[in-house]
Amino acid sequence: MASVKQWIDGARPRTLPNAIAPVVAGTGAALHLAADSVGDRFIGIEWWKAALALAVSLSLIVGVNYANDYSDGVRGTDDDRVGPMRLVGSGAASPGAVKAAAFGCLGVGAVCGLVLALVTAWWLVLIGAICIAGAWFYTGGKKPYGYLGFGEVAVFLFFGLVAVCGTQYVLVERVDWVGVLTAIAVGSLSSAVLVVNNLRDIPTDTESGKITVAVRLGDAKTRVLFTTLTVVPFVVSLALVAATPWALIGLVAAPLVYIANKPVIGGANGMGLIPTLGATGQAMLAWSVLTAVGLAVG
């Protein structure tokens, strides 16, 4: 039986910024939009909705991590893993237990999302269903799209566009260009986390038949892709000046992106890329918090 620590490690805490950052950024975009267009009167938001949006995002990412652990484990993809321990692949937990944990987390996300849909718009139920299906079929099912090179696209959509714009919508029932640009920035950094993860796993993924974007592009081009994705948020910061000069505060996160890129640019492989995963997540969270503050103040 896996220990509590092993279950926590299996949830992949390093990926939690991917769930927190879009809700923070979406809340900042909502606060910017929450000013009355006539007289610039601040009308506020309902914070319990933001808390529920965060619960949905966290539940989905932990659920997809356990689902990925289960699916890759039963396929044998994690048999010779370079990175952190996996529950099924290491034999620490049974496939059934990990599968149940995945469904349990996804179920919590579904319930929280249903509450938001009931008080906002019914069609959000459809979006939630698509998100849950995307979480499972990333590595689950007969033809998982994560094995075909669409993982980064899915992360950009679900933990970028959907999460940020969805948060803004449930808080103020509108999505504007500020929310969309902010979503693109967060989605780019979120995708970058998966890119460097797959860069690390190119040898084992190639052997197991998992054709990720990194496997398709090769080592050198994948490193260029990672760096490009991590620059996008700072281009967005400059563009958001049209909404408020306070958006430039997001540039303060640049040193964290430099730290994340250093091993990648330096040619690190395997375990040498693990620090980049954490640094990229920190950069994403820092940029989102700083930009949210800037948008709210602006």
From TrEMBL:
<feature type="transmembrane region" description="Helical">
    <location>
        <begin position="231"/>
        <end position="260"/>
    </location>
</feature>
<feature type="transmembrane region" description="Helical">
    <location>
        <begin position="114"/>
        <end position="138"/>
    </location>
</feature>
<keyword id="KW-0474">Menaquinone biosynthesis</keyword>
<dbReference type="InterPro" id="IPR044878">
    <property type="entry name" value="UbiA_sf"/>
</dbReference>
<keyword id="KW-0812">Transmembrane</keyword>
<keyword id="KW-1003">Cell membrane</keyword>
<dbReference type="GO" id="GO:0005886">
    <property type="term" value="C:plasma membrane"/>
</dbReference>
<dbReference type="Pfam" id="PF01040">
    <property type="entry name" value="UbiA"/>
</dbReference>
<comment type="pathway">
    <text>Quinol/quinone metabolism; menaquinone biosynthesis; menaquinol from 1,4-dihydroxy-2-naphthoate: step 1/2.</text>
</comment>
<dbReference type="InterPro" id="IPR026046">
    <property type="entry name" value="UBIAD1"/>
</dbReference>
<feature type="transmembrane region" description="Helical">
    <location>
        <begin position="47"/>
        <end position="67"/>
    </location>
</feature>
<comment type="similarity">
    <text>Belongs to the MenA family. Type 1 subfamily.</text>
</comment>
<feature type="transmembrane region" description="Helical">
    <location>
        <begin position="272"/>
        <end position="297"/>
    </location>
</feature>
<keyword id="KW-1133">Transmembrane helix</keyword>
<feature type="transmembrane region" description="Helical">
    <location>
        <begin position="16"/>
        <end position="35"/>
    </location>
</feature>
<dbReference type="InterPro" id="IPR000537">
    <property type="entry name" value="UbiA_prenyltransferase"/>
</dbReference>
<keyword id="KW-0808">Transferase</keyword>
<comment type="function">
    <text>Conversion of 1,4-dihydroxy-2-naphthoate (DHNA) to demethylmenaquinone (DMK).</text>
</comment>
<protein>
    <recommendedName>
        <fullName>1,4-dihydroxy-2-naphthoate octaprenyltransferase</fullName>
        <ecNumber>2.5.1.74</ecNumber>
    </recommendedName>
</protein>
<feature type="transmembrane region" description="Helical">
    <location>
        <begin position="145"/>
        <end position="171"/>
    </location>
</feature>
<feature type="transmembrane region" description="Helical">
    <location>
        <begin position="177"/>
        <end position="196"/>
    </location>
</feature>
<keyword id="KW-0472">Membrane</keyword>
<dbReference type="GO" id="GO:0009234">
    <property type="term" value="P:menaquinone biosynthetic process"/>
</dbReference>
<dbReference type="GO" id="GO:0042371">
    <property type="term" value="P:vitamin K biosynthetic process"/>
</dbReference>
<dbReference type="GO" id="GO:0046428">
    <property type="term" value="F:1,4-dihydroxy-2-naphthoate polyprenyltransferase activity"/>
</dbReference>
<dbReference type="InterPro" id="IPR004657">
    <property type="entry name" value="MenA"/>
</dbReference>
